[in-house]
Here is the input.
Amino acid sequence: MTEPFQGAKVMLFFGARLLVMRRDDKPGIPWPGFLDWPGGGREGDESPEACVLRETQEEIGLLLCPADLCWKSPYHRPGWLSWFFAAHLPAARANDIRFGNEGQGWMLIPPEAFLHDAKAIPHFRTMLDFYLGSCRPIAAEA
Here is the structure.
């Protein structure tokens, strides 16, 4: 049985660059216009891995497999649990991205740029900083 959680996000690296998406700038959504990562809300009783893999395919048209997910961490806030993942793909796989209908667009940036961008979701910056400090170095541009 999977512990109840609200959703999952993935830090998706293509070579040494991080994929970010600009959220829609609509009233009523969390973090309008901010930089985001693939992922979203849980459906039914899916696992955190199934959630992030489904959302990634829906949002950027990229089919990942569970083995692509090299790291995961829960993120707890009062009354809220979500999961963060990381995946490292060759730079050329960015050619497979097919952006969906959520958000204003996507780009690949150095992860350090995300850490210092005022329009990056603050707790995502925290998770990326934790990941970069605790895990293997990012692979060189392939």
Notes: The CA atoms of residues 70 and 87 lie 6 Å apart. Confidence is low (pLDDT under 50) at residues 138-142.
